[in-house]
Structure formats: C-alpha cells, structure tokens
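Deviations from the work plan: none for this task. Representative record:
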Amino acid sequence: VAARRFFEALIGERCLPICARTRTEWEGRSENGEFAGSDPPSSASALHSVENGGGGAVRGLGRIVGADGGVKALSRNAKRLGIRVEVLYAAQRHAARLAATLAEKIPEASRGYVTMAVGVGRDKAGVLRTVIATSERSTGGGGLRSGVREFVAKTRIPVASGEGGVHAEVKALQWLKDQGLQPVSIAATKPICVKCVDAIGRSGATRATRWRQAPR
Amino acid sequence: MATGATVMGGGLSLVSPRLAAACDEASEPELRAMAEVGCRLAVARSELNGPEVAAALAALLDGRFGAGPERESLAGVVDGLDKEAFDLQDAVEEGRATEDEYVEVFHRARAATSLLWALHADPRTAVDNALYEAITAVEDLRVIEPPVLAARARQSG
C-alpha cells in the first residue's frame, strides 16, 4: 500500500489496488503468450480488464529496467497515448518479459547475431495485441530459429514478415501499422539501436527495453 | 503404422498446417521419406553442394541417422553459412551488398540446416525441423508440399 501511495504521488494519479487473482492470471497469460495470440476473445481479457478497471494490476510498481524514462515519463506517455498508466505499464512489462523469454529461446550459437523484437499495439476497442519479429528474413512464419519457432507455435503469437536487412523493431512497428493498431510499446532481445529508438519515438510507441548508443 | 506421438505445436505448423497434419498421421518410414524429399528439394533449389553435403546426403539415403561424422561436418558447413549470411545482412544494411546476395546465402544456410535436421535420430524431430527449414529455404509451399505428400503416399502404398 505504501509503495502504491508513493507511486500515486509521483504520477499524480490513483492506481488500482494489486489484485492477487488478476496477477496470477496475468502472469500465466504473459508466460505462455496466450493473451497476446492472434484473436481469441478470452486471451485479451487480462489487459482489457485492466483498462476497464476490472481489478487490474500494476504489479510491483517498480520501474521496468531499460524502459523509457521513469514513472513520470510513464505517466506522460500514457497520457500522450490516451491510455491508463496501468495499461502502459502492463504493456511494457509484457513486452520486456516476452523479449527476455525469446532471448532465452534463441539458440546460443545465433544469439549474438539474431535480434527479436516484441511489439504491443492497441486496437480501436482498446484491446492490446502482440507481435514478434526477427532480424532475419522471415516470410509466412518461416525464418525463425529452432526453439523460438516451437514457442511461437505453442503461443500462436503472430510473426511479422520482412527482409533480412530490416531491423526486427522496425518490422514489428510496420506490422502494428499494417494491422491498424496504435503502437504502444516495443522491446527487443538486444539493446535497441539509435535508429530504432528514433523509429519507435516517431511511431508514438514507448521503449520497454534498453537502448545502445551508436559506436563511436 | 503411426507412432502415436504428436508434432502439433512444432514449428512446421506455423508454415504448413497441411504438412504438420500429415506428419501427425505418418509412420516412421513415411516421416523419413517426407523429410528426405523436403530437404533434397531445398538442397537442389538453393544449389547447395560440396563434399560435406554429398556425404550427408549419402548418410541420409543409407539411413544412417543420429550423431556421426557426416552430421558433424555438415554442422560446420551450417555454422559457416550462417555466419556468412549474418555478415551479408549487416552489409545489406550498410549498403555494401544487395538483398539478393544475402537471400542466396540465407537460403543455402537454411537448406543445409534442413539436411542437418533430416539426419536427426528422432524421426518426428527430424521431419518437423527439416521441413520447416526446407520451406524457409525455398519460400514457396507449392514446391515443397505436393512432392512431400507424394513421398508419404509412395512410402505407405
């Protein structure tokens, strides 16, 4: 409660209390990506219920390591995007966690070369949807490394197609745009380059994982 | 006779639900025949060749699956091609190479990976991954699906 009040004081908004049940559901959904799948109505309910004030959770209230700014930036970005701060926090947390999961799934030999990105976008009904993209050439669900593809097949998270010379973050943003979704957050398995940080900023989305400065 | 295990949820279902469903019903010899045809098509289309590839193909045709010198040598080829593709991907981004140059090597790397998976000891793991990689290498389901399904029919008939 103290942490919540402190957080509320910082962002100047009232937060919903942490709900253990929703937290459990949310954890489960974000672990298996179910809520982020292509279209099942129930799958989007975790985030949807957060947005509608249905006992949603800002879990831990801590800063997401590597995400855009601090809690003030979170509040500012939520206002700019026209969504509740809890929803933006949940979207960033989901994107960051999914990126971390994907990073573990990429075979060790290719981990240094392959970047995978997670994009979270919002449709007109307010439901958040997820896409993943790879830095490698990918068409029609192909081009994923072993380990990643089994995970994607299990979770049914959509995969953005694209050529090999295009960064994964840009592919994810393009997919969100093509689907008519408002970009909310982007995360990646490796530090995000300056060009992609710029592209994310221009799209209106927020960054959910670390970035890296251009080599001098 | 079907082995009873399921490959549903394997990567192949992402690119070809039809082949994934066929694999679910297939017996071990059918799975091996499907993987063989798929990876050989990928190897031929990407013009992948060399002594390691020839040795691996010979092992495949002889039914020598699992760990072995052919697989080990081919794994080295896969690593080399992957590295070359990653370097070319960077070069494309920096304007030093064309997408076509990258795609050619990328397809060859995926075809080599398809052959490597086809030699896997477990037939279901072999077919799921070999066909996924073959489809990625060829990027045209019409080239892969009919011959692979025909190979299964021939084997069962």
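Residues 85-105 of chain A form the longest helix (21 residues).
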